[in-house]
User: Fold these one by one.
Assistant:
Number 1:
Amino acid sequence: MSHDDAGFRVRAGQGQRVQTPSNWNIANALTMLRLLLVPVFGWLLISGGDSVAWRWAALAVFVVASITDQVDGHLARKHDLVTDVGAVADPIADKLLTGVAFVGLSILGELWWWATIVILLREWGVTLLRFWVIRHGVISASPGGKLKTTLQIAVLIAYMVPLPEGVAEAVNPAWGWTLDTVLVATVLITVATGVDYVARAIALRREGTSRQRSQAS
């Protein structure tokens, strides 16, 4: 989908001109809400320490923020509210939310630092790739992208759940071993989708450069 100078979008292959939606819409508002919830979540998670009440509060904010991600995407697609602002802000909000969760849990000693570092490098690397090729188009979604995101959120929620002492002792080490196994699988899938994004970005940039050269000639 491309834009013309009159504030319309042109649907690729259809020649239809559609009024560009305003940036002030419900989908973008939910994205902004998610951005605002990130520092609140981080503060509750890290400042709460061993407090079960604070941990549950942090988990509740994380879940609400994660739900807004699903809702704003659905609304944007269903009601044609996709905007350039939303296309940039939405993935940044997602990565900030999960990034703060990974870092916070690592600071608390509940999640391996190496896993957090690898995942953050992949996530923000992909964000930089998006900006690198943005004038040539938008990188198409990786086939494993949704699985990667679902696994990350599930792992983070599982690590955040505050188990009572008696329950924690009863399920350990089986619970811990299961979580660690799923975490490793999540890291592997995250890296694999990152490699796929790199390949797609390079192909998109080459295509865009080739198109520009042909137009210039």
Number 2:
Amino acid sequence: MRKYFEFQNGVKINCGENALSTIPTELAYYGAKKPLFLVSSASQKLGVVAKVKNVINTASVKEGGTYEYDKTVFQEEEARKIKAVYTDKKCDAIIAIGGDPVLESAKCARLFLTEDCDELVPMVGIGNAKTKEIPLIVIPTESGTGKEAGGYLETNETYVSSRSLVPNVVIIDEEVALTAPTRTVAACGVAALANAIDAYLNTEEESPIEIYAEKAIRLLSKHLLKAVENGEDEDSCRATVLAGTLAGIAYAEAPYGAAHALAKGMADVTGEPLEEMYALTLVPSLESALKYAQKRVKNMLLAIVGADEYADTPNAERTQRTIKEIATLLEKLREISNIPTKISQTKINREDFGKIAEAASNTRAAIAAFAPITKDDFLALLNAAY
């Protein structure tokens, strides 16, 4: 294990009933009066955007314009277009509503505006703001995994880490949370769980990252299945979105691990949705982590089942029960939402395993993990996940 950690995340989280009503106050704090709305097509159709606009209209805030993002993945070119619209309409803040593609595009556009640039370049550090920081308020839905809260962006070619990517405020309100399709909620919830677990396994026990990761695991273990079963369960839906944000903060500070590396390799090679790949990789990666983090896997059980059941489980059985609990949760989610939990349930062929393992072994998540993960390791994980 490493004997050093860094942690920095200045995002403010406004969560709970009527959280949307805090938006005018947040805008006023930053002196913003003309925000640009960056929204997903789904949030527009479901009336979520209208609810947010009604809130700011009553506070006499003038809308600077609306950019509807209809892409299924983050695209750098879209961020350049957003920057151009923002500049042309003389906006002074960004309000982003939606899942990962929308929120990542908002972060990228904010980086371009703050750093006065037009392309992502490899960068790790605080960054040197060349203009006044653009206020960014993000409102995640259940079609997100928590990426909105992390100060990084990653493409196939580039990894960027900058304070300019961290939003000022994350708003979590049940009126927004109750919107996503069942399968989307399940897949994104599992991806958030993978964020929390990989962060937990790949950080020091003394690090604040552990606190965020544990809380996310606790919330998802308790609420994700309920949110998938009943999209009108306000408490569970809100808790699921909050857990995603906390998991995103944790993983942004420790972006390593087999579940992420393998999921990304599978998505890149096969074109399968990245969020759904975590349900295939999470259990095998937990089993492989026993080689270097068995104590961490065992301790995770406390967050999953609570203090009473943890105490009632014999110490020698806690490690395997952790893995069993995660596997059981995934199978229950599959029964309700039809997300795949085995590679054999997808269109991925064994013939692709070599390419997938190669791609996974070259990811930052694999190279920088506590125990660097090789191509042979990933081949073993793929066979276990089949």
Number 3:
Amino acid sequence: MAILPHNSQLLDAGGRPLCSLRAINRLDEAEKERVYSRLLPQRLLDVLGVGGNSFCNSAGQRLISFIAPEGLPLVRIEARSKPQDGVTVFFLELSDTQFHQMELSFCIIRDPDSPSYAVDVDEAGRNNWFASQGRNIPEELRAMRAGLFPNQTHHGLQLFANFFPLLECFTDSLGIQMIVAEPLSYDNAIRYEKYGFDYLRGRRLMLEIDREFQPGGRYFSRLDGSTPFRMPGMERTVNGRSWAIHDGIMDEPWDEVQIYRIVGVHAGINTFPGREEEKR
């Protein structure tokens, strides 16, 4: 049963309740796409020039694809500015867990008209899996100086604020009351705090990070200019801290942070209360 105001239980074309992604994935393709299209912000469709329910542009080119295999509890939505473009403008992957939670596995939103930074490959051009298999320092420097966060290949479209209410409403309409995620970086965790998430695991770590970036803290003392990612003053912004953490300034790698959001409840967590706003 949905709990958000003006929201209702999601039903299939026959009026039967839908309570999971696995149930949606049993529908025929047209109905499945109709259901999952609820997750697409209107501004994304405007950017792509997609109208109606065809998921095509004015030239009739299909720009949005839904990958939702029958029998599996997951969906992937990919939107491109051109049909064969290797870079997605919007990439979303969701799954529902055995505990009746909605897992936000990935949400990547890119501005297709912004410059590209090859931080997703090593210096030999091999996929580095979010820098876990090598880094591309020259490209990371370019990205950092352009104001991007670690692992960002393009500037975003500032669309997450449009997307997240749709995800919360969609989750609620399935009768699911918790959204869970694993932020891949410090800046992701801070961003999720803004949207009302709390920590299943990692809150103590986040508070420790804030404490150790204060004057006298061990991370503060390591902002010694030894690399471009460890310059004095970087402790004051989310961007600066993120790049320093990405550069290995912590005693252990960033890992195993898990977060959750109860539908309709903003947790009010802020583990970096003294941050300065980014200068773009």
